[in-house]
Amino acid sequence: MSTTDEIKSKIDIVELVSEAGVKLRKSGRSYTGFCPFHDNKNTPAFVVWPELGTWKCYGACNESGDIFKFVMKKEGLDFKEALQKLAARAGVQVQEFKRDTPEVREMYDHLRELLEDAVIFYRNHLLKHPEVLAYLHDKRGLTDSTIETFGLGYAPHGYDNLLKHFLSKYKEQDLIDVGLLSVRDVEDARVTQHTTRAYDKFRNRIMFPIRDENGKMAGFGGRIVDPNDMPKFMNSPDTVLFSKSRILYGLDRARKPIRAADQAVIVEGYLDVIALHQAGYENVVSPMGTALTEDQLRLLKRSTRKIVLALDPDAAGQKAVLRGLDAARSAMDREGELGFDARGLIHNEARLQADLRVVALPDGLDPDELVARDKDEWAKLIENAKPIVTHVMDVLSAGQNLNDPKIKNQIAAQVLPLIEDLPTPMERETYRQALSRMLKVDERALQIQPVAPKVTRRPRAAEQSRHVNQPVAAVNPNLKVESYCLGVLFRKPALLYRLDRKLQEFGLSALAVEDFEYTDHQLLFSVVRQAVEQDEKDHHHFAMSNLPEPMGSFSKDILAQEEDLPLEDKLVEELVARFIDLRRAHAMTNISQLRFLQEEEQQQGSANIKPYQEQTLQFTRLLNSLDQAKKKTLSKR
After folding, report:
1. Which of 137, 336, 353, 617 falls 20 to 30 Å from 197 in CA-CA distance?
2. Are 290 and 333 in contact (CB under 8 A)?
3. What angle do CA 494, 499, 502 make, to 5 degrees?
């Protein structure tokens, strides 16, 4: 994961822009306001897209970019200064450039291929064990289609089934590296020394493939078949591909439904996720059986700010709530039990500007049992989810004698620290009033209630990034295309001449930094442009020598590209087609947003829509030109 990508994943662009004095108003999936870079205050033409981490002004300045470009323009900084500033804000250490070798990238692809083969291996064994298949059908209510969709499988009895099956194709160390084999020390009596022996990690377990948010295989979860086995759930160990603190089970399938519903629901188990998806509730994900982490919440925040934690009845009782209030988070980090840390959730809610709510499931039922009993009941429960503080108050007061002064004092001592941690005075005052009504005491008594001191120490960069070792998916699908094109141009800068000529032949403008959406890509392209415009050095050597120093870790993937490229004529045609597609995607996005802004102005009775209409017409004309150019490129192939 590059440094700039990590910084982008940790900084909320809406929060950053708002702190700079821009008043933003939510408009669908974007935010609008007045542009801070020019004086027009009549039309809110400044748009922020939190999912993409980008912004654009449709007014006089017509500027656009990401968080780096925003800070550079607002504070007059160069890229290196903006990077350092935002890195400090995000708690990210700017690493010295270190390039991944093609061998390392090939190794990752090789390990993912191994995991995909393991999915097939476990799937085949499930089909050979009808008693396990019957359990999934009869006891868990899963259909064959659902089992196939989620790739469920079965790890058979024995210590070397998987090992023997894969040794003809993969090395034993590969199987260890992806967590499919475990290693233990054994005593070798023949040579009187210790040696190691590898064996299948998963045995006699229902297997759940775990994919990252991009749908790429990362690891497995295994659930016992024999109730006497321990532990009930087992995940792959942390590997180069799998980090349980940074992955949410089912997110690859839930991202679009989460955006559509503008809400994400977190449940405890894999089977809960699968059963709910089967019942039509597809905006559901699950952590890896551990306390919910801020990184996992950040993954969800890319699609929604409304998150509901649907607690298992066993984990959401007083015992779990009290442990959460006592900050005994380590006590919750056990396989198969979803941690509930009330103060941690409130802190995350404030930091992420999210809306976190909690629902406790009734009658001791798990989510899959609940939807099996009454599918509509699930929707009602989620709709009535409570804010975290309200949930804690209800749990602590349940079954208690609220006329007993000691009970009142105990509840107040536990709830008031949560109230003090809330981010706004309005929220704190509202919950103090609610607590005073519940306890039937004067609110002034709660004001003087002793509370634990609030800790606001900012984590060190090393603490924040200690577990960040998995790539965060880029939501924008054009990012890969831009990276590929930049990689080609860095290796063959002279192609830029031919690209410019070819685009101009089609009546289009030459390539410019505006053809790239992100500041990082714009800076790298500017180096390529400088390289071909100077004649003192070899173009490629100039580009490599003038690579911006702070761009090193970001650039490593681009510069490490070693794909077999087609012949130069074909390569130019391919790049022209890709840049036409990129321009077309940008134009379509701009037209869609301009029409939305125009409709908003009309609904508010404003007559100031002419600038939007003019820009929409410009982009429509550009689309026509791009479509004509695309037809010409296709006819020449």
Report:
1. 336
2. yes
3. 135
CA dist 105 and 204 (Å) reads 33
pLDDT of 137 higher than 90? yes
Tally the residues of the chain. 637
Q: CA distances (Å), 601 to each of 291, 478, 613, in order?
A: 45, 30, 12
Residue range(s) in the chain whose domain bears CATH number 3.90.980.10:
106-242
> Residue 212 and residue 72: Cα distance in Å, rounded?
33
- Reference 141, options 279, 2, 324, 264; nearest CA is 279
Task: Given CATH 1.10.860, say whether it is the number of domain 478-635.
Answer: yes
Q: Which CATH superfamily is domain 3-90 in?
A: Zinc finger, CHC2-typedomain (3.90.580.10)
Q: Tokens in use for 332?
A: 């919750």
End-to-end CA distance of the chain: 36
Higher model confidence: residue 393 or residue 316?
393
Q: Tell me the average pLDDT of the chain.
A: 80
Q: Are 159 and 199 in contact (CB under 8 A)?
A: yes
- 3 state SS of 92: coil
Query: Cα–Cα distance between 302 and 340 in angstroms, integer?
Result: 22
Fold adopted by 244-383: Dna Topoisomerase Vi A Subunit; Chain: A, domain 2 (3.40.1360)
DSSP 139: I
